[in-house]
Amino acid sequence: MNSPITKIKQATIVDVAREAGVSIKTVSRVVNREPAVREKTRAAVQAVIDRLAYQPNISARRMGGHRTFQITLVYLRASALYFLDVQYGLLDICKEHDYGVTLCPIDLENGTALAAIKNSFRRLKSDGLVLTPPFSDMPDVRALLREENIPFACIAPPRAHDHPIAAFSRDRLAAAEMTRHLINLGHQRIALVAGHPDHSASQQREEGVLEALDEAGLTLPKQLRVQGFFDFPDGIEAGEALLSIKPRPTAIFCANDVMAAGVLHTALRRGLRIPEDLSITGFDDSDTARQTLPQLSTVRQPVYEMAREAGRLLLTRLSDPKADLGPTGFECTLVIRDSTGPCPDS
User: Fold this and answer.
1) What is the pLDDT of residues 104-127, one digit of tens each?
2) Same domain (yes/no): 197, 293
3) Is the residue at 342 inside a domain?
4) Taking a C-beta distance cutoff of 8 angstroms, is the pair 208, 181 a contact?
5) Which end of the chain has less Cβ packing within 10 Å, N or C?
6) Separation of alpha carbons 194 and 338, rounded Å
7) Residue at which a domain ends, from 63, 79, 100
């Protein structure tokens, strides 16, 4: 006769409270990482949780209050590939705090961002939102969320200090540094493929280029500036326009890697050698920068770190509405590869 299977009893919150000598409410506060617990008590309760291998029941956590323990990431559908690092950063910090992440891609062509974000929040019933560009750039979106009392964090907002729950990178400084790199290589006719005008980062990067040019006594003639929208076809078209100018530029700064890849494609198709005849730089240090031949000199933007920090700030605010928070800035890093070299005229 087969012996009956013994079912292992799973530890409950009652077991943890009894073992730790505290109330069930205190255990709940420790599990939910709420601030109103003494560190000594928190450590003692956590030790019991670990010893009993207690696993909080998410459904029970939700029933215990109004929280859903979900954060919604709002991003532009057309930029989904770029925001993989954003997703990873937010997922990692939320996992550490027992939160889930709901993805909310929005297509601006199908309606206004305002209505789409509002409807998404109500439908998904999350505890807060993380806004990525261009939504973090939109004052009407931020105003709506404040009016609705919806907690949110911004990644790369236009003026970071306008919102304390924000993470941003210093794009202007990095763009200026990359432009100085080109100038130090002897380049004077430096062209710009500007980024999407709805993204504040585009303006910051352009300002950085102009700042470095001005320092060197150089200018950016109108014909050497081409408007792009962060897409590969924009880079191809920009390359055609800029490389048809006589004399053509000897270096081209592109506001992101994808457009830089498009410029590179056009230059190679025209028979130009990179970097012997033309230097090209990108921005972001995305996978694209490492997949071109030659590989792109670019600026590494700490996207993963920014997303993780934005998530941390939002979770802190959710746990402690009175927490003293402020925006966090991150430095960018130049990554010099094979697409830049000395000016052919020098």
Assistant:
1) 888 766 556 677 777 666 676 788
2) yes
3) no
4) no
5) N
6) 22
7) 63
